Amino acid sequence: MNKQEKEKEMEKIKKEIQLCSKCPLSQSRTNSVVGEGNLSATVMFIGEAPGFNEDQTGHPFCGAAGKVLDELLQSVNLLRKDIYITNILKCRPPQNRDPLPEEIKACAPYLNKQIEIIQPKIICSLGNYATKFILEKYGLKEQIQGISKIHGKIFTINTLWNDLFIVPLYHPAVATYNPLMKKILLQDFQIIKKILS
Ligand code: URA
Fold it and tell me: Looking at ligand 1, which atom is closest to the CA of residue 33?
């Protein structure tokens, strides 16, 4: 897909997401949060679901967790404009509760299409939900473990278009309430640099 085709396809999904009513989260959303960044990104980050700030603005990772994410990106010389970032769910769960299986199921086609458009070389799954989703998607169900066990590991997949590296990471939100986790995240982010070089 060339740049124009990618833009066209992403615009199509954006409209679908904005009009989506496939699950009850659509009724409580202020804004849906499609995702943002470079449609030709090598690295794609997948979070869980929009929080309060994201729901208010329509932008992914624009609150406290986003600030941590920006620092982590900077530590490996990446900027938001270099990567693509989205979530499993495009609408905020009430009180930021965990996503429900039926919400993930309803929303999954959007993320799957986004991955197909971007065709990243590295997918960083942020936290337990995104990691489970991605490992399952690529037939690695038996590798699923809690994020404390598999953060910073690299899973290599041969896809139709390239070799894909899946890197599970702690969700950056953990560093907002546990500063020691920032250190672990900074270490794990070095893996991205290693794969890119
Ligand atoms: N947490 C997420 O998982 N995604 C966001 O966009 C914001 C916070």
Answer: 6
What is the whole-number distance in angstroms between the Cα of residue 172 and the centre of ligand 1? 9
Domain 3-196 CATH class label? alpha beta
- Other CB atoms within a 10 A radius of the CB of residue 175 amount to 23
Ligand 1 neighbours by CB, cut-off 6 Å: 47-51, 54, 60-61, 65, 87, 173
For the CA of 53, the closest atom of ligand 1 is: 7
User: Which of 192, 175, 173 is closest to 48 using CA atoms?
Assistant: 173
pLDDT in tens, 21-34: 999 999 999 999 99
Which of 11, 82, 94 has the alpha carbon at shortest distance from 52?
A: 94
The model's pLDDT over 67-121, given as tens digits with 9 standing for 90+, comes to 999 999 999 999 999 999 999 999 999 999 999 999 999 999 999 999 999 999 9
Q: Which atom of ligand 1 is nearest to the CA of 126?
A: 3
Compute φ and ψ for 135, nearest 5 degrees. Answer: -65, -40
Contacts of residue 64, Cβ cutoff 8 Å, sequence gap at least 6: 173, 176
Helix, strand, coil share of the chain (percent; to 5): 50, 15, 35
Best residue among 56, 87, 88, 114 to mutate for probing ligand 1's pocket (most ligand atoms within 8 Å of CB) is: 87
Measure 179 CA to ligand 1 centroid, in angstroms.
18
